[in-house]
């Protein structure tokens, strides 16, 4: 009997040890890439991004684009520039790269236009600026910063934002600058799908039921969060929105607290995904609030807010960088273009889940 008892105790001890080891391994897998001190984190959109659908050439191009953006922001920080400078410079690189849905290469609206949104926020002062529905500003992120620094407002939209950007000395281009054939073909496919089914954009039904057949399979927003040598955080986001969007639709990217937020006391956040759900969940601010009021880590808070988006029926992800340089990059899609760089210059780039 004593032998049986000892064997049973040993068996339970083995189970407990195995369970603890499994938890330790899981925690390591979740957090190991985020324990170093990071100074810059970027994303290039989240969605149905599968390796089986990606050619080696295109994957290399995406990685090269992300690396160029990371190096640009890192060099700015190393030169002693502010986190705001680094965020703006990094996002401008992504806006100029037609692979990403921001600036050149932005997706088309239902009416065949490129309408872009962008926002930027200073974690030190909580100042913020954004533009929405612009079609002639080469780099919307720079227009967002101009709104923040050169006006008494936080958000400007449409022609007014374009006029302000021109008066602020920013580069204005013909709307044709943003066009790429790949994005135009994407619109034609979406229009064809619309003509076959009578339904609202993105199969969204006001009664609360959600369909996803007509949703663009890649939420192509770009974003950057940075921590400078002075300990200041900043966040920025830029997007062309969703393919075939209608009625002047605006997503979460230019809405402070929904798609973009930064606060030196907590975290800097940039989101990507189905904007309506990020707006309704006030994702970026909610992440900061969970850290401030509940004492959650950036990883815990990031996971919590993305789970909330998923519960509502939304898809997407985010990047977050806290005041200590800890990073979180949660998403509930098949992939998210993302990259990080440490204070020592070590670069990590990932695409798939």
From TrEMBL:
It comes from the Bacteria. SUPFAM superfamilies: N-terminal nucleophile aminohydrolases (Ntn hydrolases). GO terms for molecular function: hydrolase activity, acting on carbon-nitrogen (but not peptide) bonds, in linear amides; peptidase activity. CDD domains: Asparaginase_2. It comes from Chitinophaga filiformis. The keyword Transport does not apply. Keywords: Autocatalytic cleavage, Hydrolase, Protease, Signal. The active site is at 221 (nucleophile). This is Isoaspartyl peptidase. Substrate binds at residues 249-252, 272-275. The keyword Protease applies. Residues 1-24 form the signal peptide. GO terms for biological process: proteolysis. The record marks 220-221 as: Cleavage. Pfam families: Asparaginase_2. PANTHER family: L-ASPARAGINASE, N(4)-(BETA-N-ACETYLGLUCOSAMINYL)-L-ASPARAGINASE.
């Amino acid at each position: 009997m004593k032998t049986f008892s000892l064997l049973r105790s040993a068996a339970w001890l083995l189970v407990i040890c195995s369970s603890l080891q499994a938890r330790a391994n899981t925690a390591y897998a979740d957090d190991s890439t985020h324990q170093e001190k990071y100074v810059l984190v970027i994303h290039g959109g989240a969605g149905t991004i599968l390796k089986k659908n990606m050619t080696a050439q295109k994957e290399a191009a995406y990685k090269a684009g992300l690396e160029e953006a990371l190096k640009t922001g890192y060099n700015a920080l190393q030169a002693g520039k502010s986190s705001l400078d680094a965020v703006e410079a990094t996002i401008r690189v992504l806006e100029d790269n037609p692979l990403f849905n921001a600036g050149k290469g932005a997706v088309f609206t239902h009416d065949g236009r490129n309408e872009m949104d962008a926002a930027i926020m200073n974690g030190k002062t909580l100042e913020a600026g954004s533009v929405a529905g612009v079609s002639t500003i080469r780099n919307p992120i720079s227009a967002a910063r101009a709104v923040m620094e050169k006006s008494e407002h936080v958000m400007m939209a449409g022609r007014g934002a374009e006029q302000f950007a021109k008066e602020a000395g920013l580069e204005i281009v013909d709307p044709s600058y943003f066009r790429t054939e790949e994005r135009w073909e994407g619109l034609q496919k979406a229009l064809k799908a619309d003509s076959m089914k009578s339904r609202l954009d993105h199969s969204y039904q006001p009664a609360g039921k959600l369909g996803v057949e007509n949703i663009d399979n890649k939420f192509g927003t770009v974003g950057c969060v940075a921590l400078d040598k002075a300990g200041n955080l900043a966040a920025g986001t830029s997007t062309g929105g969703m393919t075939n969007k209608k009625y002047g639709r605006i997503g979460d990217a230019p809405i402070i607290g929904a798609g973009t937020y930064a606060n030196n006391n907590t975290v800097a956040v940039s989101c990507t995904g189905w904007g309506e759900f990020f707006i309704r969940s006030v994702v970026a601010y909610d992440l900061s609030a969970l850290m401030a009021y509940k004492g959650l880590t950036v990883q815990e808070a990031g996971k919590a807010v993305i789970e909330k988006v998923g519960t509502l029926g939304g898809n997407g992800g985010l990047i977050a960088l806290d005041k200590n340089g800890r990073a979180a990059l949660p998403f509930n899609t098949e992939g998210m273009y993302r990259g990080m760089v440490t204070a020592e210059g070590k670069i990590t780039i990932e695409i798939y889940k």
